[in-house]
Design brief:
Length: 131
Amino acid sequence: MNFTALFSFSMVSVLALMGLIVPSAAAPASTSLETRWGRSGKASWFNVGLGSCGQYSSDSDMLVAVSPGAFSSGIHCGQKISVSANGHSVTATVLDKCPSCGDGDLDMSPALFQKFNDLGKGVFSVSWSPL
């Protein structure tokens, strides 16, 4: 076997082995979108109606509107979330987009807001995560 053939064979072998090793070493543990979009922010309330998810709701429903970034293209429509504040946690459903909300902020139905505070409070700190 001449030097060129031996060198070529060696390089192909090394590259083939690297192809087996690199993908398994480079793949981090996957983190689903659901575990990355929970946040903390400000909670406010609004009178609900036809939401950005295309569903009519009433003020008595346990629902939230999320920021444009969290809403994205509606991928989280119908997603159940756990909302926590003032020592309480309540399950709510994402059914709308809040154009004026910042990242982590929630706009709540009046019924959900009242689980934490009187409507006269206006705004309070909240944390939330997907279920």
